[in-house]
Amino acid sequence: MTLVFTVVTALLCLACAFTVARLLLGPDTVDRIAALDVLVIIIVAAAAVYVAIYRDGSNIPLLAAVALLGFVGSATAIRLTARRKGLR
User: Transmembrane ranges (predicted)?
Assistant: First the structure.
């Protein structure tokens, strides 16, 4: 099982690196907002791996709250960006 956790952690680190690259190189504000949303999801997934490794379920409500906060934040930011561009 340790091999699975190691592989998952390595893949999360790789995904995080690609997401940070998109965050820094994104040509548009919407790309950067989407990259931040993906980064929040990666952080939640990494915390879920931590919960799975140590079998400590006390952090699960925190994971749900952070995921919800990330979703609401990115949806609000996209809506604000669309209003500033005059799309809606």
Answer: 33-53, 60-82
For residue 53, give every residue at least 6 positions away whose Cβ sits within 8 Å of its Cβ, in sequence order, or none. 5
Helix (H) or strand (E) segment spanning residue 3: helix 2-25
Instruction: Classify residue 33 by burial, with Cβ atoms within 10 Å: 0-12, 13-18, 19+.
Output: buried
3-state helix, strand, coil in the chain (%, to 5): 90, 0, 10
Both structure tokens of 8 = 């998952």
pTM score above 0.90: no
> Tens digits of per-residue pLDDT, 34-61?
899 999 999 999 999 999 889 888 888 9
d(Cα 46, Cα 32) in Å, to the nearest integer? 21
